[in-house]
Structure formats: C-alpha cells, structure tokens
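tool_log.txt
---
The assistant was asked to compare two proteins side by side. It first ran the structure predictor on the initial sequence, then on the second. Raw inputs and outputs are pasted verbatim so the downstream comparison step can read them without reformatting.
(1)
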Amino acid sequence: MRIVIAEDDPLLREGLALLLRAEDLDVVATASDAAGFLDAVDEHAPDVAIVDVRMPPTHTDEGIVAAVEARRRRPGLAVLVLSAYVEQAFATDLLARGSARLGYLLKERVGRVEEFLTALHRVADGGTAIDPEVVAQLLTRSRPDNRLERLSPRERDVLALMAEGLGNSAIAERLFVTDGAVHKHIRNIFAKLDLAPADGTDRRVAAVLRYLEGT
C-alpha cells in the first residue's frame, strides 16, 4: 500500500508517517499544503491519500478540494480525510461525491491506533469509514421533514453503524443480534427512507445522505 500524507501540522504529519512505516506501510511522500499534495500524487501514484480538511493558505476546505482533484487525476485513489472536529458540510460533501474508497475521521481517532489502522485498511480495500462521533452528531441534529423519525431506535442504531462502513455481520456482532435481524432492519430502513433498488447506487450511504439533506 503506497500512501501520501497531506497535513500542515508537522508533528502530526511526521507522527503519522512514523506510525504507518512501523506497520510496514509504504509512505511514499508527505506534504504540508494542497499544492504539494497534488504534486506528490502526480509523482508517486499512491494507492491511498490521508488528507487534512483544513490546509494553507486559507485553512478552510483546501484539503477536500485537493482530495477531489486528486481522485479526478487518479481514479480509484482511496482517500481518508482527517478533521479536528465534526464539520457537517464537509462530511456531507464527501459522502455525496460517492462512498467507495472514502473515509472521514476525527484526528483524535489517530491516537486509537488499532481503530485508525482498521479504517485505513477498510478504505484502501474499497470500503467506507466514517468516524462514529461524526455519525452520532450528524444523526442527532434535527432537520425539517426528517424521515429519520420514521425509524425505530434499533433501526437508527443500524443506520449509524452502516454509515461507519460496517457490514451486516459486524453490525450484528456490535448489536448482539443475528445477521438475519440486521438484514431485516436494513430492509425496513430502505423502505422507510423511500430508497428503492437502483443500479450503481449505494443505498447504505444514500440512507445517511437522505437524512443529511433533509429530504
């Protein structure tokens, strides 16, 4: 796994590089700004990019914009975005652009090494990894015409774990229920959120987006 890190905090940037190299992962380049990150992507053709949301010069959305551009230049690039705190607009934007090989984690998750590495590998393997705290905050904010109100408490639990990127078996293990029960809950979620089967649509992520968009 070839990795590029884009992070303007030198301590976190080098700490991440040391952590990943200690796990025998190939950190091919690090960058302190969006321009340097894109140059590194062009030069090294990484498999995964770890990108801070807020980067120079304005420290607003440079990381998100650069990540989108990097995936345009290198289709299939896995991107794990790091943020100091929950930023609803960025999380929603990230999901809206497609869920495959994408993750959104709070920076504090890096200190929980096993969880961070699990998320990194999940994204690299083509999955989605959304920080549980991000999911919790987004799903508890009230919205007009909130279809989430149709869901039972257990269905909300399942939806939150779906948004984190967990599969049915992992959800069943976390909630101490059977795989069949999880499958039933997911069918109910899709039905209550008016998500009909459609080719090319990830209904798991669409269920979260339906709530976030308030439609």
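(2)
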Amino acid sequence: MNTQTLPVSPSQTSVIGIGVHRTSYEECTDLIIQNAKRHQSCTVAATDVHSMMRGYLDPQGHGYRLNNFTVVTPDGQPVRWALNLFRKSGEKYLRDRVRGPELMLRVCERAAAEGVSIFLYGSTEAILEQLQVKLTEKFPNLKIAGAISPPFRALTPQEDAEYVQTIRQSGAGILFVGLGCPKQEEWAFTHSHRLDCPILCVGAAFDMHAGQVDEAPILMQTFGLEWLYRFMQEPVRLWKRYLLINPLYLVLVALQLFKILPRQKKRNRIDYQTSHII
C-alpha cells in the first residue's frame, strides 16, 4: 500500500449526529481519483435523508459506520439545506449537492481519461450487463475490470472471500457498490481494509444508468421533490419512508438548530447539539 500523504478530505458538519462533508463533485472526484492512483482504500457514501435517518435511529450500527467513512456527501437537497443552515463563519455555501448517480458518471469520466479501471458490485446480472454497455457507450475509453452480482442473501465466508479475491485480482482502481442502503454502507465499511481502492456507495445509480429507473425531472430535483417522484412510482413500498421518516428529519433538524436535539449514545467524535466535529 502506498504510504504517501493523501489528499485531505473536505470539512465536515454534523447533521442530526451524522458527519456530512462540505464537498463538491470536483473535490470528491479528485479525492477518489488520487486515492485510486495511490492504490489507497477510502470509503465514500452519497447520503440522502433516508440514510441520515437510519444513522440517527441506529447510532451504533449505520450511524457509526457513516461517521467513519472517508467522505459522506450531501446526496439529498434537504441534507444540503441543513449543511447551509448550520454553516459557520468562513465556511463555504454549498450551491449544489453531490448525488450518487452524478458522482458515478463524473468519476467514470475521469477514470476513463486517466486510465483508471473500475469494478461494479451489486444489483442483478441483467442490470450489470446493461450498465456496462451504457457506461462504455458513454465513455469509450473506460476500462471495466469486472462485475459481480452477489446473491440476495447473506454470503458464506467462502463466497465473500472469493468475491474479495476476484476484485483484488482484477486490478480495479475504483469499486462502485450498488446494494442499497444500509447494506452497501455496511459492506463498504467491513471490506475497506481488505481492498486497496476507493469504494463508492452509489445507491440506485446502477439501475438509473442501466436505464431501468427514471430519474426525477430536474425541476423536482432542484426543489428537493425527488422523494415525491419516487413515491408516485412505488407508493406501497415507500410510503413509510417518505410520509413518516422525512417529516421526522425536518423536526430533528429544527431541534438541532435550536440546540435541543435529544442526546443519544455516543456514535463518534461529534457534538450533536452544536454541529461541531470534535
């Protein structure tokens, strides 16, 4: 493993106890590419309200893992709004979020230009096949070192070891993981020490870029209404997430703003009341 000095991660702010980085597509892409070239492991999670709330409600599990990622990006607009709400003097105002699907494309573009190969882990074989076709059409010079569609069950130790060995032997410089939240973050957290490359948790990006899931219209994205677009597509599956969890997130952000957010068990070195990383 290369021991040279690594690029510094962007600054961080606590939002309901989860440390989210004040970063941009450019900063995050640079960090990933530089780590890839150094064969250095790092973990990146594109985090929306759903993931934030999972972290808040499960501080010793999902919350702890997120707070130990190299970079947690503000995927959802409400997360970006909270970062700007808690902005301190001298900190930059975030004019854009860092979405998993868009970050994946930007990283692939840079990887193709700089000769860094990628690996895809997650989803179904059919979607992975289509995803590889779409990515190589968009980025002809992109080298895809391999792809794995793991079974939708707990892996045996032997299966897990074989998959890790396949990824390592592929020589891939960047690993994209599309297992859905919180499974993908748990996988990245537990495997980062075994892989000498950046691991990016990108959620539904595989399905979107394979052409299986439509993205919300730009106007709905701008006003933070992606949740409504997805809810209209899958109301039975998503009603609890969007009609119960999202309002609770807004309440918790308001409580943090007025410094009355209930303290929970310590998750990491974060002061939940004041938004400071300590």
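---
observation on (2): Confidence is low (pLDDT under 50) at residues 1-6, 265-278. Residues 235-257 form the longest helix (23 residues).
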